[in-house]
Amino acid sequence: MEPTELADVEQNVSTGSLPGWGRVDELVRDAHRRYAGEQGGVVADYIPILAEVDPDLFGLALIESNGGLHDAGDALHPFSIQSISKMFVYALAIQHHGHRRVREIVGVNNTGLPFNSVMALELNGGHPMNPMVNAGAIATTALMPGATSVEQWELVREGLSAFAGRALSLDGAVYASEAQTNERNRAIGRLLRSYGRLQSDPEEAVDVYTRQCALSVTAHDLAVMGATLADGGVNPVTGDRVVSADVCRDTLAVVAATGLYERSGEWLFEIGLPAKSGVTGGIVAVSPGKGAVAGFSPRLDPAGNSVRSQLAIGHLSRSLGLNLFASAPAAHASD
Fold this sequence. Notes:
43% of the residues lie in helices and 9% in strands. By secondary structure, it is of the alpha+beta class. It has two domains: 18-82 and 214-320, Beta-lactamase, CATH 3.40.710.10; 85-213, Beta-lactamase, CATH 3.40.710.10. Strand 5 and strand 6 (282-287) form a beta hairpin. Helix 2 packs across helix 6 (149-164), helix 5 (134-141) packs across helix 9 and helix 6 packs parallel to helix 9. It is globular, with a radius of gyration of 19 Å. The two termini are 37 Å apart.
């Protein structure tokens, strides 16, 4: 079946349900207590200001698709969204341009290489491969409508704010620090332009991308944003539609395959959820029809993924039955 035919087919969805509110809240708090003492990983320092963060911060949040809220620890502590912004800007781009157009420009396959790899771009004839690595994310951001980069940035900010259910603001200090050290992204932008993958000015495209990464969020915000994708594009807290259900399907499919970079296969095998990580220590994982869980803890593994957040989300995936690939035998009539 061609991708464009999907919209013409009636699609039935069945995703099960979560336990009652009290049990979910108990399990979220238990997961936070269980991994709060984990000391593995190191804080990112390639962006100077990120090295100043308290490594012991740890927040966990779960938002149900019916609007149930569960926070534990430092769930309301602000940090910059960084690469997690990629999945939501990708959803906005598909909403504006459609499934086929965005797939042609950005692609959906894992590179198997680090998130900021230039080699991945060169090895694939300038094709960004997927929107969760920097090359694909810059190309995706450049697809946002707007006559100027200022207009594009405002649409990005407004769109991510709609996902979060509140107005998000730029962390100016993080933006300034990143803007002074993003030479590789600027090089990627110019390389994309040389291959015809950017129609706009590469410096402006990279600047908008840098701004979107510097938006300030909390683990609670990320859980609301993820739960919007879990709820067919309707924010379960505000009740507002942000994107279509088809856009959610497309976004979560790509995130499942590429959201944790070269560790995406391991994550999907062990945890079974579409998830996206960021270098500040955030991770958001989505269980369609049920909700989303987000963690924040700055200590990262070698691939740039939060150690505590991975452990806590993995624990909740198992204890709440979130794994997309898990099933139990159906009841069969006896012979």
